[in-house]
Structure formats: structure tokens, C-alpha cells
UniProtKB/TrEMBL annotation:
Consists of three domains: the N-terminal catalytic domain, the editing domain and the C-terminal anticodon-binding domain. The gene is proS. GO terms for biological process: prolyl-tRNA aminoacylation. Its EC number is 6.1.1.15. One of its GO terms (molecular function) is transferase activity. This is Proline--tRNA ligase. HAMAP family: Pro_tRNA_synth_type1. It catalyses: tRNA(Pro) + L-proline + ATP = L-prolyl-tRNA(Pro) + AMP + diphosphate. Homodimer. Catalyzes the attachment of proline to tRNA(Pro) in a two-step reaction: proline is first activated by ATP to form Pro-AMP and then transferred to the acceptor end of tRNA(Pro). As ProRS can inadvertently accommodate and process non-cognate amino acids such as alanine and cysteine, to avoid such errors it has two additional distinct editing activities against alanine. One activity is designated as 'pretransfer' editing and involves the tRNA(Pro)-independent hydrolysis of activated Ala-AMP. It is found in: Cytoplasm. Keywords: Aminoacyl-tRNA synthetase, ATP-binding, Cytoplasm, Ligase, Nucleotide-binding, Protein biosynthesis. It comes from Cohnella faecalis. GO terms for cellular component: cytosol.
Amino acid sequence: MRQSQLLLTTLRESPADAEAVSHQLMLRAGFIRQLAAGIYTYMPLGRRVLRKAEQIIREEMDRAGAQELLMPAMQPVELWKESGRYSVYGPELIRLHDRHDREFALGPTHEEVITSIVREEINSYRKLPFTLYQIQTKFRDERRPRYGLLRSREFLMKDAYSFDADWNGLDQSYTKMFNAYNRIFTRCGINFRAVEADSGAIGGEGGTHEFMALADIGEDTIAACTCCEYAANLEKAEPGILPLEAVAGFDAEPLEKLLTPGVRTIDQLVLSLQIKPADIMKTVIFMVDHNAVAVVVRGDHEINEIKVKDHLGAKSISIADPDTVERVTGLPIGFIGPRGLTIPVLVDHAVLQMPYGIAGANEADYHYRHFNAGRDIDLLQVGHFRNAAEGDRCPSCNEGVLKFHRGIEMGHVFKLGTKYSEKLGATFLDSAGKDQPMIMGCYGIGVSRILSAVLEQNHDEHGMIWPSALAPFHVHLIPISSKDDIQMQAANDLYNRLLENGVEALLDDREERPGVKFKDSDLIGIPIRIIIGKDAEYGNVEFVERRNLKKESISIHDAVARIMEFVSDL
């Protein structure tokens, strides 16, 4: 491609409303342009990168045995009502009506559609298993689109769905997709971790993993072990626990009631009693599926509502308001404790391992001292009900500790089980002639997010640094002067020779100053730059690697050889 003919406008300054580095760079380099909040046009360079990401995904999905199809973006809401998600998905689902007043939705995902297709096509176990995938635009009405392509309202996604006759088959399909995702993100040059995660709005009956690109701008927190491969989203991470015998040697003092007038909060207790938050047992009342539940955690820990909900097999959870708390317990907030409550009491493992602590006495202006959960609470339920904290023991190897990282979610794999097949009637006849629901898996990749994740990890003060597999071009040819006949002849000869050998080359043939050309080249981040200057008459050029801006004077012949070697490794 000749740069004089390329639709490319670069900006010297970052737009004021672009917060993420990747967003700033893609706008400055002319890779994307905003049409509306969270809605972007991919300009020619951006589209080239996007297509390369798509190609890597297609190759690995095909290698894993998946078959590509393309489903409609506009979906009849009757399917969403069949699955039960129409009323629970929320305002992110973009709804519309056609001229006949029939209601549709712009697909944020395609579980309902793919299940409806397969239920019409498959009726026998002999046609199972198989996996279908598509790469298609998705729509979600984000409340606050931000960070460019990282949180947008229209985005490109690869979604795949597996169908098996039994759970063992699903395990195999899931493993194939898990391994394919590892290959995809490795080929894209991303530093990532596969982490245990919560299934969220997609739902399901089995395991789920997120693939996270490690980046400071990431909106998710990852807890990863310093010794083993354990990693989990903070929503799912479980801290390792000491065996109960490790704390059995402590002899708790007799329970003692303290007068604590007006002392309601953790901070007030710390100041009043000269203790640490970790010495307090915090009791919080939640409404879980409209039923009151008490959750007890250590005063320095945060309650994880998802873990509480999952433990109880509930659909909804919310913290109880003060009026509800007083109605349920007969007490104002601030003095509630787990002893003597008539509602279910869920106690976090860390509380059970405290030899004693401070807890509400369920009496206004009073707390207990020397409270021991195992001794002083009846009918308790024990589990992981808090967020893991940095420095917690690893739950997998029990040797390392958890360290926190920020992460960008790029992909998510789910074991759906029969969540959708049962509701939408996707069944098959087994070998005994009995009707069975198909066992499903779901596997998504945010294709457009890959661009942002890569740039968050690959940039410097000058601009982008594209990994070779995703770069819009392999090599950037820059003659110092477009008016110098010798330089332009050498540049054109090299350009044509590279094209003939399948090398993607961008020739900057613009009548611009060298400084402008170099700044634009740094900004758009093509891996190799060849500068054709005054030494061109002697058959030499300057070879520059964008990642480290290392420069080397070599012959044109050697430059071609090195470029060909670079391309052959892709």
C-alpha cells in the first residue's frame, strides 16, 4: 500500500475524553473514529488489525473442530421469553419493534438463537457432538461506555456453542475450547491468565473460566498465586484456610457483655476499644430471594455477595435497608450479632478460625467480648463468603500467597449444561430411544477488545508497538525524500520485490518532512521500518525494529532476507 493513497489522518494530541492509552493511540493513529458514544468506525488500518485477529481465531476454532455459521443480529424476543432471560437481562438489552409491532432485540449474545436452530436440526445422539461458532457484531446498551473498544455498545465478538450427549462429552468440548483460547491469545502476543470466574448473566451448571489480559486499566481484579498456576477473578477467588486444628490451641475467654453506647461502626469500635478491625466479627443482614439472611465476616474483610448467593442457590441478593433490619431483628443497625438470631447465619471460614473477637450483642448499646463463633452460635452455616485479600494463602497449593493484578476480560468459557436446552426444548433421542436434553457449552471472545488489550501492553511514549501477528503491515518503507530519484527508485524496487514475495509493505511516498514521517511511523507501530536515505546509492538502508527502535545500517539484500525470515515465522 502506498501511504499517499491510504485513508489515514494522524493526530498530534490525544482527545480529551480518551482515558485509556489504547483509546488515545487508536484515535491518534487513525485506526478508529467515534460515531456516537460507544460506537466506532474501524478505519483501514484498524480494520486490517481486526481481520488478522479474526483470522487467528478462525484458524484455531477450525483446528479444534468447530464449524462456522452466521446468525442474525436481530432476534425475536419470544426466544428470550422462552429462556426466561427477557425480564432479567436488564436495560443492556436493546429492544425494538418492526412495522407490524412485533418486538425484537439486537443480540448481545446468541444462546437462545443457536439453541432454537439446533433443536430443529438435531434429533439423534448419532449427530452429536459438534461445536458451532460465528464472528459477528453484538449490541449492549452500556450505561457508561468508556475506554474506547474496551466497553462499547457495539462490538465484534466470536461466540461458539458446543452440543454433547452427556457431561463427559461436555468436559471434552470444554477442554478443546479452553486449549484453543490459550493458543489464540498466545498467538496474538498477549500476556494473559486463565482464571476461575462466575458465570454471571449467561448462567450454567458447571465450570467457567475467564481469559484476562494483565493491564493496569483492567476493570477486573485477578487473584493469582505466587507459586502455582492458580488464578481467579476476585468474585470467585477463595482464600486458603488453615485446618481447624491450627487454631484449636487457643482457649477462648468466657463471653462478656460490654456497654458500648452509641458505638455502631467498625471504625468506632476500633477507636473505643483500642483494637484492630481484624478483631471484630461483622454481621450484615441481606435479603436473599426476599428472605433475610445474616452473613458474618471478619471486620477487615469484604462480603462477597456472589458467593453468598451461590451458596444458597439464590437468584437475587441485596443488602437489607435499615427499616428491614429493624423489622427482622428488632434492633437498629450497629449492635446486631450472630448469637440468638432466628434467621439463617452464614459464617465465613476466617471468622470460625478466630479464637475470639468482638461481636454485636443484639441489644442496643452492647457488644460481646471474647466471642467464639464455634461455641457461641447455633445453627451456623460455614463457607467462603468474603473477597479474597492480597496475601491470603493460596487455596490450591497452600504454599504460595495470592497477589492481585488488574485484568481486561478478553474471553469467557462456560459449561452451560441444560440451562437453555431444557427451557427451549433442544432434545435428542439417546441409544435407548429416550428423549434427553442436549448438554451445552458456550465460548466467547471479544474480538475488538483484543486490539485494546494488545495496545495496553504494547506501547511506549512514541505510540503503538504491534505484535507481528496483528500488525497492519509487516514493514514500513520510508524514503527520506520523495524528490530524490535514487531513494524513490530504491524504495519502489524494494516495495515491489516485497509484494511479489507476499510481504505486506506500506510505502510512505508522501511529500512530507522526514520528522513527520518518523513520528507517524512510531505512532502506528509497524514492527519493521526500512529507512531509505542517502546511502541508497551504495545499496544500503537503515533497518529499525519498532519495539526497541534499534537502528542498523545493512544492505538492501540483507534487509530483504531479514524481512522474509520475519514473515516466515508468522
